[in-house]
Design goal:
heterodimer; A: about 650 residues; alpha/beta; Rossmann fold; Elongation Factor Tu (Ef-tu), domain 3; 6-stranded mixed sheet; 6-stranded antiparallel beta barrel; 15 helices; B: about 270 residues; 2 domains; two-stranded antiparallel sheet; 8 strands
Chain lengths: ~650, ~270
């Protein structure tokens, strides 16, 4: 037989319900492709005979005495073989419910899966559970192997029945359509050669199906993500050691390090031996960076390019699987690890739990997630975390939850929102976040409403301050905590060091947004009344709020310039026109009209009562419980 | 990226994770081909300098060629080398002349290792084992916890995925085996030795129609028939063979599941 010299190794996991014949299938595949080491089968047959057991092909995989005695796979194993086309790492995963942690340990490194289903038993609980895990593990290529066809007299009808049931299951799970084939591992039908017993099956045998799985995609074309593992010193140089998880990195590239958005240029790579040090490193490469600027970088940070940056936030929706042994409890602290980041985190809400036995969805808010369950949850971290949606970049979109070093579960980020504009790099370092016992949700429950930011923008004289204070009064009288951050008032204190240049205006807005975020986090409705003339600045304010999971509503308080000029409550237009003040919006500085404000209020057309009614409506909607992002925005989130 | 580069990068990643995670690390080094690849990768991981000691467990049954290589490599790489002999067992007369290979291997390797662990209080050992060497090694994790007696609880291993590793709780005792070569095959090892021009002892190359494919203690290690006298020839030979790598290692075949029993008690 001619074998491939292709270097590529494709990892394939064999999964399915216990006793459906996974290990036997792999054993048979190795045996029939001549991949079993010389003398191995004879040795196992002798050993089995000595103990009065029949020889099983599964013994090639189930190497532990306990596994052979009980005919069950306890832990995952991996074995290599070659076809004409390429090399494979075949991963055997246990099908017993109790060994789900071992199944995951094997399956998580696979590129494709063979789902083995017993022709007699059909689809069972672990068949469903393993299938449900595939999208979380990012496995897109699935081969369904209906095994033990010899026990159902190679019946085409039975095969079609099982394939039909699986097609429905896969559709419900949002999985791509699998390649299906009937076979018998024990009698070697349709493994390497097409079966003469099942002439009705048109497709090729298992070996052919394996060779048809497309090669793993290249990760170099994705956005750059460099995971920092450690900082080493070499003489006077600081080496930022880590791995290019995705994308490509070249000497001279500008980088941003997250969380924190710190900017630096890559001066050189540092590797040993120095003669082979590259000028470019692509996805998968472990290397070390020497940066041009002396910035504070530490383990856990993710390097990106200036564009296509990751999300930095403290809250995100996720789909998790829980291994246990104890249930996951809402509100309890766990260690969350994502690439090399490690932060304390809690699950704030369990949105949906999917039962693997019935595939039924329990929509009601549950206090936790039981072992072996899969659930959609909302996660909150103590410090900002840099990550991606798993659908965008799997490497930085998945995480584990642990306690005292023990891995208890894992999950993927689903449907988190990317920032729409890039924020300026942060200067100060190092920074820490600390967190108290009470979170925003507890406060909200106690108060009967949650916090929000209502952001008024518009020309001077449009009516922002007037409306803001009226809204504040209305809310307060209904028992809703509210507070106005007025532009003029802020400039007396928090922003007393700033003038009206566009740079200082941007900083003023940033401060206002941060102050509003704190108020909203404390449970208040923060009403901000600021001209905030530039779209980019308002967008940043929105991002500050959304990154913290706080609802943000932009209100465009609108009146034509002539009306505002005529109103001129502080006589500022008159002064600007006389040249006494410069860079005054509407006179010698532009106002950029909002494109996507949640509410527009033409104060010259509406009565004060009408204005207030609209404002109350949008505010009450923003602070209604439960106050959390929907998990169903992302189509990938469908169960 | 080529398969070899992927393997190299994953090993470097694991070595760096280990160095970051553990306080006191030791790296057993047998002077064998895998051990020398591991040494090479450690230099890559730490940019030319291995920041932890390298341990040779000397059974006193070593091939002279291996001892010569040890002396050369210690100077050449500037290793912090610790040599350990289980003097107590030797004094009791434990040896291949009088005892079975399982007992000798356990006493002179496993117990010697336990003595070193106790003396240096290492919390992690970097090993050079590979999944394709033996079916019980195929079930290993990258980070594999061992009890304070050095035992491997293979029936209940912690989950490990997405390059996130379980760690024993604080104060649990014992150590963690970090196994950067787990994904490599014998074939990959030789391809990498060729690509990187890694120095290895001469016993691997055929002389008089025989060569060593895997090297342990002299009395229980047997050469295999081979004419492969260069790295290229070894690669061609391995491509065609179906003979298992450790066929010449007597302790593996002494009884059924000998390796499982040895390894459960702390053998690498």
């Amino acid at each position: 037989m001619h074998f491939s010299t292709s270097e590529e190794v494709v990892p394939i996991v064999v999964i399915g319900h216990v006793d459906h014949g996974k290990s036997t299938l792999i054993g048979r595949l190795l045996f029939d492709t001549g991949s079993v080491p010389e003398g191995k089968a004879e040795e196992l047959a002798r050993a089995a005979a000595a103990e009065g057991m029949p020889f099983e092909h599964a013994f090639l995989l189930d190497s532990l005495l306990e596994e052979q005695a009980q005919n069950v796979t306890i832990d995952t194993t991996e074995i290599r073989f070659r076809t004409k086309k390429r090399r494979y790492a075949i991963i055997d995963a246990p099908g017993h419910k109790e060994f789900l942690k071992n199944m995951l340990s094997g399956a998580a490194r696979a590129h494709a899966a063979v789902l083995v289903v017993d022709a007699q038993e059909g689809v069972r609980e672990q068949t469903r559970r393993h299938a449900m895990l595939l999208p979380i593990l990012g496995i897109q290529h699935i081969i369904v192997a209906v095994n033990k066809m010899d026990l159902v007299d190679f019946s085409e009808g039975r095969y079609r029945e099982i394939v039909g049931a699986l097609a429905t299951l896969f559709q419900e799970l949002g999985l791509p359509e699998p390649t299906s084939l009937p076979l018998s591992a024990r009698s070697g039908e349709n493994i390497v050669q097409p079966s003469l017993q099942m002439l009705w099956h048109i497709g090729g045998p298992l070996l052919e199906a394996l060779d048809s799985v497309p090669s793993p995609p290249r990760l170099d074309a994705l956005p750059l993500r460099f995971a920092v593992q450690d900082i080493y010193r070499r003489g006077t140089e600081r080496l930022v050691a880590g791995r290019v998880e995705t994308g490509t990195l070249r000497v001279g590239d500008e980088l941003l390090f997250w969380p924190g958005r710190k900017r630096a240029r890559l001066r050189a790579f540092a590797e040993w031996p120095t003669e082979t040090t590259p000028t470019e490193a692509s996805a998968g490469r472990s290397t070390a960076l020497i940066l041009e600027e002396e910035i504070f970088v530490e383990r856990g940070m993710i390097g990106s390019s200036l564009e296509r940056t990751p999300i930095e936030a403290r809250e995100f929706p996720a789909k998790i699987f829980w291994l246990g042994p104890d249930p996951l409890r809402v509100g309890e602290h766990y260690e969350l690890r994502l690439v090399t980041q490690s932060v304390s985190a809690r699950v704030l809400e369990v949105d949906r739990v999917i039962d693997a036995e019935t595939l039924s969805v329990q929509d009601s808010c549950k206090p936790g997630v039981e072992p072996n369950e899969i659930a959609e949850v909302l996660v909150r971290t103590q410090r900002p975390l840099a990550f991606d949606n798993a659908s965008e970049i799997a490497q930085t979109g998945r995480f584990i939850l642990a306690r005292e070093g023990r891995i208890l579960g894992g999950g993927i980020v689903l449907g988190a929102r990317y920032p729409r504009a890039s924020l300026p790099p942060i200067q100060s370092s190092p920074l820490f976040w600390t967190e108290g016992e009470i979170d925003r949700y507890e406060r909200a429950r106690a108060q009967g409403h949650s916090g929000a930011i209502i952001w008024f923008t518009g020309l001077s004289g449009a009516g922002k301050s007037t409306l803001a204070f009226q809204l504040e009064a209305q809310l307060f009288r209904r028992g809703i905590w509210a507070y106005v951050l007025d532009g003029d008032n802020l400039r007396h204190g928090l922003s007393s060091d700033l003038n009206f240049s566009s740079e200082d205006r941007r900083e003023n807005i940033r401060r206002a947004a941060e102050a509003a975020r704190i108020l909203a986090d404390a449970g208040s409705v923060a009403i901000v009344a600021l001209i905030s003339p530039f779209r980019g600045d308002r967008r940043k304010a929105r991002e500050i709020a959304e990154a913290a999971g706080i609802p943000f509503r932009e209100v465009f308080v609108h009146a034509p310039l002539e009306v505002c000029r005529a109103r001129d409550p502080k006589a500022l237009y008159a002064r600007a026109e006389r040249g006494e003040i410069s860079e005054f919006t509407g006179v010698d500085s532009p106002y950029e009209i909002p494109e996507a404000a949640e509410l527009e209020i033409p104060t010259h057309e509406l009565s004060p009562t009408e204005c207030l009614e609209q404002l109350m409506k949008i505010t009450l909607e923003a602070i209604t419980l439960p106050n959390r992002p929907s998990l169903r925005e992302d189509p990938a989130a469908n169960i | 990226m080529s398969n070899l580069s992927k393997l190299e990068s994953q090993s470097v990643f694991l070595l760096r994770e280990a160095y970051r995670t553990f306080q006191r690390i030791g790296m057993p080094w047998s002077m064998g081909k895998d051990s020398n690849v591991l040494l090479w990768l450690a230099q890559k991981a730490f940019c030319g300098r291995i920041p932890f000691p390298v341990l040779h467990i000397d059974t006193t049954y070593e091939f002279p060629e291996m001892m010569e290589f040890r002396a050369w490599a210690e100077t050449h790489y500037g290793l912090q080398l610790i040599v350990k002999i289980n003097e107590e067992a030797i004094a009791r007369g434990v040896g291949y002349e009088t005892h079975d290979p399982i007992t000798v291997t356990h006493e002179l390797k496993t117990v010697a290792l336990q003595q070193v662990l106790a003396e240096y209080r290492w919390d992690a050992l970097i090993t050079g084992i590979r999944r394709d060497e033996d079916p019980t090694r195929a079930k290993e994790r990258y980070f594999s916890p061992r009890s304070s007696e050095g035992e491997w609880n293979y029936k209940d291993q912690p989950p490990e995925f997405w390059n996130q590793f379980a760690l024993p709780p604080k104060g649990a005792g014992g150590h963690v085996r970090v196994q950067p070569l787990l994904d490599w095959t014998e074939y990959d090892i030789w391809l990498y030795i060729r690509r990187e021009r890694i120095p290895i002892p001469p016993l691997y190359f055929a002389r008089n129609g025989k060569r060593f494919r895997s090297i342990g203690c002299q009395p229980i290690t047997h050469p295999v028939p081979s004419t492969a006298s260069t790295v290229d020839e070894i690669i061609s030979e391995l491509y065609a063979t179906r003979t298992p790598e450790r066929a010449g290692r007597a302790q593996d075949h002494h009884e059924r599941n000998a390796m499982q029993k040895l390894r459960a008690k702390g053998f690498l």
